[in-house]
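User: Show me sequence and structure for the first protein, then do the same for the second.

Assistant: Starting with the first protein.
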Amino acid sequence: MKTIWICLLAATMLLARPVMGQTDAAALETVLHGKALGLLSYSADSVVKFTYVDGKLIQDPLLMHGLGAFFPDTVRQKGSKILIEGQFSTLVLSSGKLAPMEKLPMRIEVELQGASPAVVFPKLQSLLFFPSIKAAIDGLPEYVSDFLPYPFDGKLQSACHCVHVFQDGKWIKLQGDFSKLTAPTFIKKVENPKLNQMAIDAKISGTITLVYYVADSGRVDELWLAKPLSMELDESAARTGRDNIFNPATLEGKPVGSILIQTVPVN
């Protein structure tokens, strides 16, 4: 299913091959500016924080993941941090085509922690981004690849007609008879009374679609933003979503991790 729409992306949705010699902020900005980049972390947060340690980037905990394109505007060094500021657009399906939603502000922060900027700058492009948007889509975890990119009209049609569950430390794809599988149900469904007022103040209405990984403990261990509305509203809905508690899904009577989609109306 995923590859059908990839060819419909504009040429600007491809990331240029890494260019050597990016030893300062200006050089990296020249390479990245205006391109559509797929984040290796699949972060959909407004601020994404990393620490550079021994040639690798260690990421701070994420509020929400998402499939999107990041468009860098500026790259600068501020003290011990490298800051890449730009805009993020969630990718959805619209009339069968891959389409970007509204661009929203995003900032990537890399704490150098004593590392030499001249050493870190040449590595950042490959440490942060996929080589192309196609690679980002192809690299989606299997358990969400049937949901993302999410259809803008909400009419989801799974390509595999299957269900993924997490059991015994691994993901299992179930097909055919689902009679031995029970879906997760809410024990505690947390409401967000501020969300509608935030929408009224921002003069925005619509829906936010979230995809939960509900662990066998009943907790939301991972959250994906499938269809956004605005960065502030999305993050508020995500924080609330992470506080929900469930009776976990069960397979043959045993608790398993599972995926649950929730559409949050905002009026």
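Switching to the second protein now.
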Amino acid sequence: MAPTTRIRAHVQSVVDPDGAVLLDLKKGKYFSLNGIAADIWGGIEAGLTLPQIEARLAASYDAPAGRLRADVDSFVAQLARAELIHAAG
């Protein structure tokens, strides 16, 4: 099974239909997410693996699978660099 990605304990989020706002309590920084990024974040919150998140996005958006995979991987890498998430399992 693919490893899941977990949200770090010092990160809070508010998600609505238009996007999301993340707050890094440790660094005092806010991050604003658009709709697709918020959907990826929601998948992480739900404990889904990255392939599961990609499948969920493919069902919701008209985009080629390769493009979705690249976008998910890029966004998750940005979250990891910002120390908002970490790999688990």
